[in-house]
Design goal:
heterodimer, A: alpha/beta, 10-stranded mixed beta sheet, 10 strands, 43% helix, B: two-stranded antiparallel sheet
Chain lengths: 284, 494
């Protein structure tokens, strides 16, 4: 199957997730599905009774109480999600999309994404914590976990939907990067948009070769390409470039395989996700 | 990443709830550790060290976050004769061996055997445990002055009535503090914890049990270790199932087996006795908002802090206050619903439950009770299924022959019925037995068929058997219906 799956939770950016997902579904000419996940968080206690006494039938009544509480919460969350989804489906249809569906699932976001991966082409997520809100240190770990877990591309939406006209590919010359360029060249998602291929770092012959390869690949695919090498670390060079040339979308590769290294230093991907002023399309 | 996720999920997702619940639970651990150390015939410090050590280790190694394990009554009752006959050092050695056996059980994935323990046996186990905990309090009560009764009653009153006032303070704590205060202020001459033996005065230290390492030692401790391992795993598995239900989250039973083993080995090396999961305290933990591994760790650490640094005060606690707390634990552990259900449930299930309780109360050994319960439920089940057998017959060949049709289950419990269903007195020339809708489950069934054939031959009838291959498909030990998608339908239908 072949769907754009937009994950919504009713928080800020839900409308933007909807708009970006609609845009992606239209460009890819595939159905759009809104996904709302009901995560009950059983690892957190809903009741606190420090009386510490147990008496006749405490176990049974505790089970009843916890069950009833979960039931009430789930029913509410389900209804809230249903309303949210109905509204978004209407919004997407208004924007001219015909094939729009919605579904709700229990469990965590990552579990739901992994279950739906086989029928998906692209996931669209929104971030709760945003660079512009000054919470730069913390990337919403739902988004982070989702990107780490799934194999499909993920589009992380930002506030203020702007139809992308110009996108930047953060290219590093790695095999993953080359695969990403090839994917972009062959996919209808970004066809006809202005394209910038940017490599961060020092200018060497090797880097120039890599860049020339990427440029040719994209030119052959019919893109209007501007290639450039920006000095400095990718974490700072890329956001600057995005601002200077007012690009509307950043395309980059996902997390590397060295998990230990990520734990200690954090990865470029995470940093860019946090600091990018525009939506980010992450490729595996 | 996995590590980070599990750290967040199991340890840090419910910090406030876990820490406070741990504090509440620690208060309920102290009386049980002290009371049952005395019953086992060792100093309270053995039980308290064990409780600290098991609670802390199981927080890391267990398979059921939010479950509380420590020194328990169920285990203490098994060790009584070992301590009496051979002394403390042998108990420590037995504790180590118990841990090893439990780890082996976990590796062999014996946790799955729990599915043979029926609901009735579990209820019987829980009720028997509650009765044992209550009976263990009797020595403090029988022959005691009226003052002790008054204090226990007052303690229970505080425990159950104080929560009506506020649920922010653990009522067992209020009970202990108030009764201790009253006893000290009025200078009452009643037994206190200090009278019962040595309390911990320092942090536990590593030590090897002082026993000769030979076959004789093994012969002494092995039977005890085996029983301890079985009782510990049974109670742990049952408690895990209860916590699973309460929190609606899954647990890893085999990891729990290994975890219990590791915790017991650690306890043995730190001079503690063997322990296991506790039903009452785990319910208290969940009720107080404990969900993660942190709750068990907090319970253990708070317990040690209270006992070691407040030791002078702990000594002054009157035994009556601890008896009140333990009576509460036993009331809370007992499944009162099962009494209501005695009349409603089928008699066979009630018999299993009551038999489990009676055997445990008579032998003080939960393993024996569960063994009898499982055996009885197996027999009852076999008896029930054995009745699913019908043999029809009709006359054939103008009255000179007879065609029998067998439908249902033929195995050891129904073989006699099977044989008795044939009429050997009838004079006939030929017999046809259609087995294509019967199931032969074991050798007894095949044997019974042979007998039937032989008897008919002796009476001079020619015997023809139809459908033997279908009937005996279930005979093979590796028989499994899930290999072929239509196997179940074929089995039910043929």
């Amino acid at each position: 199957m072949n769907k754009v799956i937009a994950c919504v939770d009713g928080a800020a950016y839900t409308a933007n997730v909807c708009d970006y997902a609609t845009w992606a579904a239209q460009r890819l000419a595939v159905p759009l599905e809104f996904l709302h996940v009901l995560d009950r968080h059983p690892e957190r206690a809903p009741v606190t009774d420090y009386s510490g006494s147990i008496g006749l039938g405490t176990q049974e009544s505790l089970l009843q109480e916890l069950g009833a509480l979960d039931e009430k919460r789930s029913t509410l969350a389900q209804r809230h999600g249903r309303e949210l989804l109905d509204g978004l489906v209407a919004r997407a249809k208004e924007a001219g999309l015909a094939a729009v569906e919605s579904r709700q699932r229990h469990g965590s976001l990552v579990e739901a994404l992994l279950d739906l991966e086989a029928e998906s082409r692209l996931f669209v997520l929104g971030q709760h914590h945003h660079a512009e809100q000054g919470v730069k240190l913390h990337l919403d770990h739902n988004v982070e976990r989702a990107i780490r877990s799934v194999q499909r591309p993920v589009l992380v939406a930002r506030a203020n939907y702007l139809e992308p006209k110009r996108f930047v590919i953060a290219f590093d010359g790695s095999p993953t990067g080359r695969k990403m360029v090839a994917t972009v060249a062959s996919s209808p998602l970004l066809k006809g948009l202005r394209c910038d291929v940017v490599m961060a770092g020092e200018t060497t012959a090797e880097v120039q070769n890599q860049l020339a390869w990427a440029r040719t690949s994209l030119l052959d695919a019919g893109f209007e390409v501007q290639a450039s090498i920006e000095p400095g670390e990718p974490e700072t060079a890329l956001p600057n470039y995005l601002k200077v040339y007012s690009a509307d979308l950043l395309v980059m590769g996902a997390y590397g395989h060295s998990r230990i290294r990520q734990l200690i230093v954090g990865s470029t991907t995470t940093t860019l996700l946090r600091t990018s002023p525009v939506p980010v399309l992450v490729h595996r | 990443m996995q590590f980070k996720t599990s750290l967040r999920q199991n340890w840090l997702s419910n910090i406030r709830g876990d820490l406070l619940a741990g504090l509440v639970v620690a208060l309920a651990l102290i009386p049980e550790a002290i009371a049952f150390s005395i019953i086992a015939g060792v100093d309270p410090k053995i039980g308290l060290y064990a409780s600290f050590c098991i609670a802390v280790v199981i927080a890391f190694t267990g398979g059921r976050p939010g479950m509380i394990s420590a020194a328990t009554g169920a285990m203490a009752l098994v060790m009584v004769t070992l301590v009496k006959d051979h002394g403390l050092q042998y108990l420590l050695a037995a504790t180590l061996l118990t841990g090893v056996l439990q780890i082996v059980a976990g590796w062999l994935r014996l946790g799955v055997l729990m599915r043979f323990v029926s609901r009735s046996v579990v209820t019987g186990f829980v009720n028997a445990l509650a009765i044992l905990i209550f009976m263990a309090q009797l020595p403090e009560l029988i022959g005691a002055p009226w003052l002790v009764y008054a204090m226990v009653a007052a303690g229970l009153g505080i425990i159950y009535l104080f929560p009506l006032l506020t649920k922010a303070v653990p009522s067992p704590l209020v009970c202990i503090v108030v009764l201790t205060g009253v006893a000290m202020a009025m200078g009452l001459n009643i037994r206190t914890v200090g009278d019962m033996g040595q309390l911990p005065d320092s942090l536990p230290v590593f030590l090897l049990p002082d026993v000769p390492l030979n076959l004789q030692t093994l012969q002494i401790i092995f039977p005890y270790s085996l029983t301890l391992a079985v009782v510990g795993l049974l109670e742990s598995m049952m408690t895990a199932a209860i916590v699973d239900d309460l929190t609606d989250t899954p647990s890893n039973k085999n990891r729990e087996c290994v975890g219990q083993g590791v915790a017991n080995i650690a306890s043995g090396f730190l001079g503690g006795m063997a322990g296991c999961a506790m039903i009452g305290q785990s319910v208290i933990n969940v009720k107080s908002g404990g969900r993660g591994r942190l709750s068990a760790l907090a319970a253990g650490v708070f317990l040690l802090i209270m006992v070691v640094f407040l030791g002078q005060w702990v000594k002054q606690i009157p035994m009556a206050a601890l008896v009140a707390v333990m009576v509460m634990v036993s009331i809370g552990t007992f499944s009162w619903e099962s009494l209501k259900n005695l009349g409603k449930h089928p008699p066979s299930s009630s018999v299993v439950m009551v038999a489990t309780v009676l055997v445990v109360v008579a032998t003080h050994d939960l393993a024996k009770g569960v063994f009898v319960g499982v055996l009885l439920s197996g027999i009852f089940f076999a008896h029930k299924v054995g009745r699913v057998l019908r043999v029809d017959s009709e006359s054939a060949s103008e009255g000179r022959g007879r065609a029998y049709t067998v439908v249902g289950q033929v195995f050891f419990a129904s073989a006699d019925t099977f044989i008795a269903s044939f009429d050997f007195k009838e004079v006939i020339e030929s017999v046809r037995i259609d087995l294509s809708r019967a199931h032969f489950w074991d050798i007894t069934a095949v044997n019974a068929l042979d007998k039937v054939v032989m008897k008919f031959r002796r009476e001079g009838a020619a015997v023809e058997i139809i459908g033997m291959s279908e009937a005996s498909a279930t005979l093979v030990d590796k028989f499994a219906v899930h290999h072929k998608p239509d196997a179940v339908e074929r089995m039910m239908g043929h």
